[in-house]
Amino acid sequence: MATKASRSAARLMMAPAVVLLLGWMLVPLTMTLWFSFRTYLPLRGGDQGWTGFDNYVRFVTSSSFWPAVSTTLIILIGVLVITIALGVLLAILLDQPMWGQGVVRILVIAPFFVMPTVSALVWKNIFMDPTNGLFAHLWKFFGAEPVSWLSDAAIPSLILIVSWQWLPFATLILLTAIQSLDSEQLEAAEMDGASPLARFGFITLPHLSRAITIVVLIQTIFLLAIFAEIFVTTGGAFGTRTLSYLIFQRVLESQNIGLGSAGGVYAIILANIVAIFLMRIVGKNLDN
Predict the structure, then answer these.
(1) Cβ(36)–Cβ(55) under 8 Å?
(2) Reduced to 3 states, what is the DSSP secondary structure of residue 142?
């Protein structure tokens, strides 16, 4: 049992890390809030003074604001559906005994360690190029006209690219959850005559509920700030401008750090709303 002295020593040793972490989070947040109430033009004289909520009003009343929010949520939902559905399938397949199982698992997880900009460039130039891409050659092989993926189907293309990046993460978490499933339950259900689909629906899937909620929560936090893939592939054109990319464009267009900071505050609010909603779901699953 930990004594009072050992607990005090533990707090003392953790204090530098806690202070550093709080400073890492609070200093940028405080600066963002400060600049959001000011007109700061770094290329035109710097700080122009206090503007109150003018930056917030300008940003939210922009004709691009709500389309950017809806695009962000569409990409988020699309990626979550694909990664969870395929992640469950891959996790079940990888849990089966096979030759070279360790190598297969490493190959499946490997895309998660590729930088977003690199993976986006690979998909853009090697797979989705309408002239020399692999998909273009595949379409020509079947006698069809190649598709300009990043213009004719920009949002589905982005969902595909981002899903490819996050699928290994979902698979890894779900595979770990499946491996913790008591095999005796599945064997007993099989002996009772339950079909594979019934075993999956009544035993495996309920067991994966907590892991799925964790995957949804973590991916949502990161996907709400998706930027690199859009910057590399479409540049925000063809209806692919998300909230984070809109903030980037507004800062470049107006050269107003205050306007971009106001957009950043809106992004923080949106992320917290979604995170709180998902945390409630996670909490209910954990309580059950």
Answers:
(1) yes
(2) coil
Reported as a single tens digit per residue, the pLDDT across 150-171 is 888 899 999 999 999 999 999 9
| Bridge partner list, 46 | 41
- Provide the 3-class DSSP secondary structure of residue 210: helix
What are phi and psi for residue 109, nearest 5 degrees?
-85, -20
**Which of the 8 DSSP states describes residue 104?**
H
- Report whether 206 contacts 120 (CB < 8 A): no
Q: To 5 degrees, how large is the angle CA 57–CA 31–CA 278?
A: 70
What are 129-141's pLDDT values in tens digits? 888 888 888 888 8
Q: Amino acid identity, residue 113?
A: F
Measured CA to CA in angstroms, residue 16 lies from 4, 6, 10, 19, 20 at distances of 20, 17, 11, 5, 6
Go through 149-181 and write b for each residue having 16 or more CB atoms within 10 A of its CB, e for each that does not. bbeeebeebbbbbbbbbbbbbbbbbbbebbeee
The 3-state DSSP class for residue 43 equals coil
Q: What CA–CA distance (Å, rounded) separates 57 from 54?
A: 5
Give yes or no for a contact between 63 and 143, defined as CB atoms under 8 angstroms apart: no
- What are the boundaries of each domain within the chain? 65-240
Which residues is 151 bridged to in the sheet?
Answer: none
* One-letter amino acid of 174: L
Domain 65-240: CATH architecture, name and number where available: Orthogonal Bundle (1.10)
List CB contacts of 195: < 8 A, sequence separation 6 or more: none
Kindly state the tokens that stand for 66.
């709500």
Q: CA 187 to CA 197: how far, in whole Å?
A: 14
* H/E element, 187: helix 183-191
Where does the pLDDT of residue 64 fall: very low under 50, low under 70, confident under 90, or very high at 90 and above? confident
| CB-CB contact of 55 with 256 (8 Å) | yes
Please tell me the pTM assigned to this model: 0.83
